[in-house]
Write a structure and sequence with these properties.
single chain, alpha/beta, Domain 2, N(10)-formyltetrahydrofolate synthetase, Formyltetrahydrofolate synthetase, domain 3
Length: about 550
């Protein structure tokens, strides 16, 4: 069996101006990054087309550690929609180097449903992650510089500063550090740490900003800490937002590439869904809707994480709303949720499948809570039996949900024709309520409890003493009327990764709450979730190499 990178190398990649031409983009409007990548100016967004064209969201059930092919299905579906005559663009997030070198390896789809050039996209791409990292860390440097200053000090209390630094790599050793050691010329010693770049508030701001003016305003609203006399300090007080926005000027522009079948692909922004909002940028989605009849986009991890945030944060902020939502399910993940170890999920086991099917049922119930039009896509693996597939199909159909079996890894767009036809039938006729799960005007406690009880299925929410103290700060800052971005494990509907299937009678523990005033949400951190992941025992990086001609291997 060929690897993803081998399949990618065999594909015929077109010059980026030819891909742009499919979307009606004039060559003079392209900002090329080499021969096969380009950035797109925001002037191409046409607000008059946003509600006229079809937005299709792809989500998933709770995944196994390797994921269930949500990105692969998104790419395959976009290729299939083009095959049936629907002008379609796929809009995705940019991969983070954390999972690329960590547990997943490449994150650009797989098999015959990939985006190209896959090595570039997986590595440094057009430098957006680097720009986010630099803008974030510039603010950190400015904060410490002001604390050190004797002439321009804002009297910031270092004990109240929670703005960490970020790096686009899994590195658990950087979670908790001390800066400022080395004497009086090296700063004021204080405890801090690193988050991964995908969890940066600057990344969240980039993904929600409508233009450069909005970006700069949001950057200025970043909460930094308090003065010694309890006055709140924001990035604007440090005059940091202008320089930060300057670093992000090019990163604000969406990136155009292509799929293996030369379908246009816009890839922009890359927040994780378990510790951030998990969706690509608002401007990328609006760009896709301005240039094509259908946009297929994805939200990270399961419906309980990325899709909930897509609907409650991104859609409520931007005015967007999906016309159809595809839920990706796999036989192997359902058996995993039925108690089968990951190494054994390829073996036929209908009894385990029956035990684990409740996970999919809960996700479908969650979809109905938003009044959206769901479709289940069974991402077929070669080990799946007809009996197993028929059971999953029957379960979904019993819940009045259309089902399609797809093989986009092995067949590309051809393997999702049935799904594309179902989407093309449902999307234009979906009468959606455009209603989020909660009102932003509710108290933070009510919003958190609503998500935990209605989406996760929790019995109750427990706020630790630290979380209660953080909530007081939220109220004091007047930030109680903004959205909620839950940080929770992706491995379970609960906040405990060991509770598989559809857990019941559990309590979600909110350990602390971080403020992301610029992004416009608060971040309740549940269970043992970390905003700086660590590498696995056997990192994917061990299999990667580059030869003397610059050819990369091991990305899969």
């Amino acid at each position: 069996m060929k690897s993803d990178i081998e399949i990618a190398h065999e594909g015929t990649i077109q010059p980026i101006n030819e891909i742009a031409a499919k979307l009606g983009i004039d060559q003079d409007d392209l900002i090329p990054y080499g021969k096969y990548k380009a950035k797109l100016p925001l002037k191409l967004i046409d607000k008059n087309k946003l509600d006229k064209n079809m937005l299709v969201l792809v989500s998933a059930i709770s995944p196994t550690p390797a994921g269930e092919g949500k990105t692969t299905v998104s790419i395959g579906l976009s290729q299939a929609l083009n095959r049936i005559g629907k002008k379609t663009t796929v809009v995705l997030r940019e991969p983070s180097l954390g999972p690329v070198f960590g547990i997943k390896g490449g994150a650009t789809g797989g098999g015959y449903s990939q985006v190209l050039p896959m090595e570039d996209i997986n590595m440094h791409f057009t430098g957006d992650f680097s720009a986010v990292e630099k803008a974030h860390n510039l603010l950190a440097a400015i904060i410490d510089n002001n604390i050190q200053s004797k002439t321009r000090s804002l009297n910031i209390d270092p004990r109240t500063v929670h703005w960490k630094r970020v790096m686009d790599m899994n590195d658990r050793s950087l979670r908790h550090i001390i800066v400022g050691l080395g004497g009086t010329t090296s700063g004021i010693p204080r405890e801090t740490g690193f988050d991964i770049t995908a969890a940066s508030e600057v990344m969240a701001i980039l993904c929600l900003a409508e233009d450069l003016e909005d970006l700069k305003k949001r950057l200025g609203n970043i909460f930094v800490g308090y003065t010694f006399d309890k006055k709140p300090i924001y990035a604007r007080d440090l005059k940091a937002e202008g320089a930060m926005a300057a670093l992000l000027k090019d990163a604000m522009l969406p990136n155009l590439v292509q799929t293996l079948e030369n379908t246009p692909a816009i890839i922009h922004g890359g927040p994780f869904a378990n510790i951030a909002q998990g969706t690509n940028t608002v401007v990328a989605t609006k760009m896709g809707l301005s240039l094509s009849d259908y946009v297929v986009t994805e939200a990270g991890f399961g419906f309980d994480l990325g899709a909930e945030k897509f609907l409650d944060i991104k859609c409520q902020s931007s005015g967007l709303w999906p016309n159809a939502v595809v839920l990706v399910a796999t036989i192997r993940a359902l058996k995993y949720h039925g108690g089968v170890p990951v190494k054994e999920v390829a073996q036929p086991n209908v009894e385990a499948l029956k035990k684990g099917i409740s996970n999919m049922q809960k996700h479908i119930e969650n979809m109905y809570q938003f009044g959206i039009c769901p479709i289940v896509a069974i991402n077929r693996f070669t080990s799946d039996t007809d009996e197993e597939i028929e059971f999953v199909k029957q379960t979904a159909e019993n819940m009045n949900v259309p089902v399609s079996v797809v093989d986009v890894w092995g067949k590309g767009g051809e393997g999702a024709i049935d799904l594309a036809e179902k989407v093309a039938k449902i999307a234009p006729n979906c009468l959606s309520q455009r209603q989020g799960l909660y009102e932003w005007e509710w108290t933070p406690e009510k919003k958190i409890e609503t998500i935990a009880k209605k989406i996760y299925g929790a019995e109750a929410v427990d706020f630790t003493q630290q979380a209660k103290s953080d909530l007081k700060k939220v109220y004091d800052l007047g930030l109680d009327k903004i959205a909620v971005c839950m940080a929770k494990t992706q491995k379970s509907l609960s906040d405990n990764p060991d509770l598989l299937g559809r857990p019941k009678d559990f309590v979600v523990t909110v350990r602390q709450i971080e403020v992301a005033a610029g992004a416009g949400f608060i971040v309740p951190i549940t269970g043992q979730i970390m905003r700086m992941p660590g590498l696995p025992a056997e990192p994917a990086s061990e299999k990667m190499d580059v030869d003397n001609k610059g050819n990369i291997s091991g990305l899969f």
